[in-house]
Each structure stands twice: as C-alpha cells, then as structure tokens.
Design a protein that fits this description.
With 261 residues, this protein is mostly helical. The protein folds into 2 domains: 164 residues, no CATH class; 97 residues, Serine Threonine Protein Phosphatase 5, Tetratricopeptide repeat (Alpha Horseshoe), CATH 1.25.40. 74% of the residues lie in helices and 0% in strands. It is built from 11 helices and no strands. The longest helix has 31 residues. It is flat. The termini are far apart. The N terminus is likely disordered.
Length: 261
C-alpha cells in the first residue's frame, strides 16, 4: 500500500523556503568584483550539475554561493526552484519504490535509495528501506530453514547456500547506482570499486566506475580544483570522450603564471 507523503514533503519544502525567505534581502551585496565573479561561476557550475542530473550537488553549490553573497537574487531563486524540484523527485522515487516492495524488491530498493540521495531526511523512505531490508533478511532465513528441514527429513545434511552472501553485493550495487544517478560520484566510486573487487570481469561495473571517475573529474574541473580533477581523469582510459582534452587543460591551468618583467 502506497503511503500518502504529500504533506510531509510539502512541509519539508515549505520549511526550507521560509528559512531562505527569512534571510533574503537582509544583506546588501557589496562584494568586490572578484567575489562577484566567483559567485557567478558557482551559479553557472550549479546549472551544469543540474543538467547532468546531479541536483544534490547543484543545491550544495548554490548554498556556497549564498554563503559568499547572501543577497544574490539569482542564486536564491535557483536554490528555491531546486529545493522544490528535489522534493518532488524524491517523492516520485519513493512512491515507485514503495509500490514495488513486494513485486520487485531490488528495484524498490534502488528507488528508495534514490529518494534518500535527494532528501536524506525523508522519514517515510528511511522506514520503507528498513522494512524492505528486514523482509529480505527474513525471507533468506525462512528459505534456509525450509532447506534444512527438507534435508533433515531425508536424513541428509543441509546444502550450503551459494547465494547466502549475495545480499551485501546487491546492496552495494544499489547504493552505487543511486549515488551515481544523484551525482554523488565519491560514493559511487567507492561502491563500484567494491563491486569490481568481487566481479573484476564485469563490463557493466567497469563502465559505470569509469564514468563515475570521468564525471567526478568534470565536477572538480568546474570548481577549478584542477589537481583533484586531474587525479580523477587519470583513472579513465585515454580516448574516453574528452578526457585527454580535460587532462591537458588541467595541466595547463596548474602551471604557475609567468612573472612579468
């Protein structure tokens, strides 16, 4: 049965918007030109992150922009819009996940994790995910008990379940996929690396891991953290999309500026 979550989500969004509105206009922007340019670039980076589907990262960027310049109306309008979008997308993932808990637990888990990536304090999604995990664990216990009972009735030893430890792998994969879709490439890389250690020859895991490193590099590049960007790009094979071009740009930008004579 799908829970009604509109009210909690709306209350969550309304609370954030009230807080943002309360601080809007309190500070008159008198930033130096260099700081104004930095804020402009952060807002532009946030827009690019949103285009790639990394709404959570975009929200974080806009909050940084408003920390530097609380009176920046463009950053505040974008943040207000994204908070609403973030809440709606989290709710959509939750509703799908909640509806699939019985028919497709793995898909349900993926959707619930996606909801929590967008909104970590989503209580209904947290509860649903906990219940789903308990149900899966209970199902495994019951299946093992049935096997043991059947073996005992035949006077045999219960067979070892080769799938006994599959759940942690499934969980890592779902966490990795949800993190990737949310633009949390640090978490995605960590989880895909776990999966690669378990399944070193799986082409899909390798493809997602490489894409996570590449997207992470672009995110660092857009923030002008060229050292971290170059480290991420070094994990990607040569010739992958624009990785060679980005790597060269990072090296050029990391060179110390020549002093004028």
């Amino acid at each position: 049965m799908i829970r009604t979550v509109h009210s909690p989500v709306r209350r969550h969004i309304a609370g954030i918007l009230m807080l943002l509105s309360a601080t809007a206009g309190c500070t008159i922007s008198q930033l130096p030109p260099a700081d104004r340019e930095e804020v402009r670039q952060i807002v532009e980076t946030a827009r690019k992150e949103e285009e790639r589907g990394a709404i959570g990262t975009s929200v974080k960027d806009l909050k940084i922009a408003l920390t530097i310049d609380p009176g920046n109306s463009r950053a505040r309008e974008e943040l207000n819009r994204l908070v609403i979008k973030q809440g709606k997308e989290a709710e959509a993932h939750f509703i799908i996940g909640d509806s699939l808990r019985v028919s497709n637990p793995l898909k349900a888990q993926k959707e619930l994790l996606a909801a929590l990536r967008l909104r970590p304090d989503y209580p209904e999604a947290i509860t649903a995910l906990q219940e789903l995990q308990l149900a899966k664990a209970e199902a495994k216990i019951q299946a093992r008990l049935r096997k043991e009972a059947a073996a005992k009735a035949q006077g045999k030893r219960a067979p070892v379940d080769d799938d006994e430890d599959s759940y942690p792998d499934e969980y890592s994969l779902e966490v990795a996929m949800a993190a990737f879709e949310a633009g949390d490439y640090t978490t995605a890389i960590k989880e895909f690396q776990k999966m690669k250690a378990a399944y070193p020859n799986d082409p899909d895991i390798q493809a997602y891991l490489e894409r996570s490193w590449y997207n992470s590099g672009i995110a660092h590049y857009n923030r002008k953290d060229y050292k971290k960007a170059l480290t991420a790009f070094s994990k990607v094979r040569k010739g992958f999309e624009r990785v060679d071009e980005y790597s060269l740009l990072c090296r050029q930008k990391m060179k110390p500026a020549k002093k004028k004579k």
